[in-house]
Amino acid sequence: xxxxxxxxxxxxxxxxxxxxxxxxxxxxxxxxxxxxxxxxxxxxxxxxxxxxxxxxxxxxxxxxxxxxxxxxxxxxxxxxxxxxxxxxxxxxxxxxxxxxxxxxxxxxxxxxxxxxxxxxxxxxxxxxxxxxxxxxxxxxxxxxxxxxxxxxxxxxxxxxxxxxxxxxxxxxxxxxxxxxxxxxxxxxxxxxxxxxxxxxxxxxxxxxxxxxxxxxxxxxxxxxxxxxxxxxxxxxxxxxxxxxxxxxxxxxxxxxxxxxxxxxxxxxxxxxxxxxxxxxxxxxxxxxxxxxxxxxxxxxxxxxxxxxxxxxxxxxxxxxxxxxxxxxxxxxxxxxxxxxxxxxxxxxxxxxxxxxxxxxxxxxxxxxxxxxxxxxxxxxxxxxxxxxxxxxxxxxxxxxxxxxxxxxxxxxxxxxxxxxxxxxxxxxxxxxxxxxxxxxxxxxxxxxxxxxxxxxxxxxxxxxxxxxxxxxxxxxxxxxxxxxxxxxxxxxxxxxxxxxxxxxxxxxxxxxxxxxxxxxxxxxxxxxxxxxxxxxxxxxxxxxxxxxxxxxxxxxxxxxxxxxxxxxxxxxxxxxxxxxxxxxxxxxxxxxxxxxxxxxxxxxxxxxxxxxxxxxxxxxxxxxxxxxxxxxx
RNA sequence: GCUCACGUAGCUCAGCAGGUAGAGCACGUCCUUGGUAAGGACGAGGUCACCGGUUCAAUCCCGGUCGUGAGCUCCA
Length: 633
Fold this sequence. Notes:
Layout: E1 3-8, E2 11-16, H1 21-24, E3 33-36, E4 39-41, E5 51-56, H2 61-82, E6 87-88, E7 93-94, E8 97-103, H3 113-126, E9 131-135, H4 137-146, H5 150-158, E10 165-170, E11 173-176, E12 190-200, E13 209-218, H6 221-236, H7 239-245, E14 249-250, E15 260-261, H8 263-282, E16 286-287, E17 293-295, H9 296-302, H10 304-307, E18 314-317, E19 320-324, H11 329-337, E20 341-342, E21 348-352, E22 355-357, E23 373-383, H12 388-405, E24 410-415, H13 425-442, E25 446-449, E26 459-465, E27 471-480, H14 482-486, E28 491-492, E29 498-499, E30 502-511, H15 512-523, E31 536-540, H16 546-558, E32 563-565, H17 572-581, E33 586-590, H18 592-597, E34 599-604, E35 608-614, H19 615-625
Parallel strand pairs: 1-5, 16-21, 20-28, 24-25, 31-32, 31-33
Antiparallel strand pairs: 1-2, 3-4, 3-5, 6-8, 7-8, 8-13, 9-10, 10-11, 12-13, 14-15, 17-19, 18-19, 21-23, 22-23, 23-30, 24-26, 26-27, 27-30, 28-29, 33-34, 34-35
Helix pairs in contact: 2-3, 4-5, 7-15, 12-13
The protein binds one RNA strand through strand 12, strand 13, helix 7, helix 17 and strand 33.
C-alpha cells in the first residue's frame, strides 16, 4: 500500500492511500468538505494522492457551494417524499442559494413551499449520512430507470465514456451527481425556499417545462435572517419602486415597454444626456439626427432583415413595408456615402441620441432595464485600419471618465468570434488581436468570452459595478468589417485609391433609460446634486415668508438651479420630512428671522441642519455644488 | 413567446364562506402661522384591468384577452 504525504494547514501527516480526510486529523467543527490539491472532495472520499489539504467551512466559497448543492438534494428528497411520481431534472448550487428543476404532475405554487420546507427540516433532523456511490454506466442506467428518473437516464446517456459515474445516497433518496457533498444532512441548519417558477428542461423551449424551486440555506438561523434582510434592502432600491415613489417615471399598459417620463425623471434624463453630449463634443464627436423609419430595403441591405427581423417594429403602408430603426448604424452609413470622403476626413465620429425601437418579447420586459423604446449615447466611428488602435483608446478614455464620475468600478470583457460569424477569418483574427493589444496597452484587466462576439465583429463590453456589487453591461465597443462592405463604403486614400473604412459601433452609457435605472438603484434614489431632479427645495416656515421664498426661487432659477418652493400650509417638520423622503439634496428653511436678515437656513439631505447663511453667499456656493462634473461652467 | 402567480381609489393594501366596497397616505376646503422628519376637522374620489359564461345575484366561481411580477428563452 502506497504511503501518501499530506500537508494539513502546515502539519505534515502521512497515511496509507485510501485514507479518508476525516481520519487524517481531528475534523474541525463545521467541516463541510476538503480541498486537496485544487479539488474539492467529500470528507469520506478515499484519498488517492497526497499534497496540500484544507478543510472547507461555510466561510469558503467552495464550502458554501457544497453546502448549497447538498441543500438542493435535500429539496429534491423532500419533494420526492411529498410527490413520489415527481421526476428529477438538475439541481445546482447558485451564488447565494440553490434550485432544483423537477417535473411534477401538477403545478406548484408558493403556498406549497412551507410544506416542502417542513419535509426538508424533517430530513435535517433525521441527520442522514450522505454516501457516495460509483457506478458503471449499466448500473447507473438500471438504478435510475427503476426509480422512474427518465431525465437522469438522459443525462447518463450524455456522460462521456471515460468519465466516472457517481451518485449520492441519503436515506431512501439517490441522486445522480458528481459531488462533492456534505457528510450528513444535519449540517444544514437553516433554510428557506424563496420562489417557484417554470424552466425548460435543458434550457430549450421545445422541451417540457419543469418546475424550478429556488431556495437558500445557511448553517444557522441568524445568517439566514441576515441574508433575507439584505434581500429586502435590495428590494427597497428597486428602480421601478423608487421611480414611482420619487415621481420620476411610470409605465402604463397602453404602451408596454415604453417609458412615461415625468417632469422630475425627465430632468435627470436630460441632465444625463447633456453630460454625454458635452463630453462627446469635447472628444471630437459630431452629433447628427437621422430618420427613424426606413423602407425595408435598407434593413435587407444592412443584414437586420436576416438577423434581427423578429425585433423590428414594422409598418405596412401602401403595400410597402417600413421599419422603425433598432439602431443608428445604417443611417450613419448612408450619411457617410452622401459625399466623397477623403482619408483626411477620418476618423469621422458620428454621435446620435434619437429614439430606437426594438420589439422585445413580452416576457423580457423589465422596468427601465429592458424596454421597447429607448435612446442610446450611440456613435459610429468611421476609421482607417491604422486608426483602430488609437480610436479604441479614445473610447476607453470616455468609459473611464464616465464610470469614474458615477463612482462605479468597471470590468472589461472581450468577446470573440461566434460560430455564426460573417466575413473573412483573417479579418476576425486581426481584429481580435488589435483589441487585446489595446487592452494590454492600457493595462486593463480583462476577461475573454469566447464565441460571444457579434456576427460582424469582435467586441469589448464594459460591466459597471454598482453600490450593491452587481455588474451591469453598459458600454460596448464593437469592431465591424461587415457593414462597410454591405454599404460599399469608401474613402480616397493618400495614394488616390478608394479604400474601405472600418466601423466602430460604440456606446458609453448604453441605453440612457437603462443607465438611469441603474443609477437610481446605485444611489438609492439620492442622486448627487448635479443630477438631482430637484436640487433645492425652499421651505417657508409660514405663509408670511412666501414672497421671500419666491424671490429666492427666482434668484436660483436664473442661475440654472432646479428649485421649487413648498407652498403648502403645513408645519416645518412636515415639509422637511417630505423633502427628505423626496431625497432633495438641499433644503432652505426660511422664516421671519431669515427674511429680516436676508439669510437662509440650510439643511442638507445627508448632514441635516447647517445653520443660517447669507442669501448672496448661498447662491454663489450652490452653483458650484450643482455643476456638472468635469466642466467649468 | 413559455410556466406559475398577481391585477380593488393617484399610491400601499383590507374585503370572512358569492348578496353591487373599506383603511392609511396623497388630493380639496376650513381651522391652525407653527424654526429642522407626520397639527386638527370635514370632504371628494372606485364600471373591483377588460370581454364572455355559471347563478335569482359575481370584486369573489369558470373561460378568454390585456398588463404586471418571478423564472426560462431571447437580447447582432
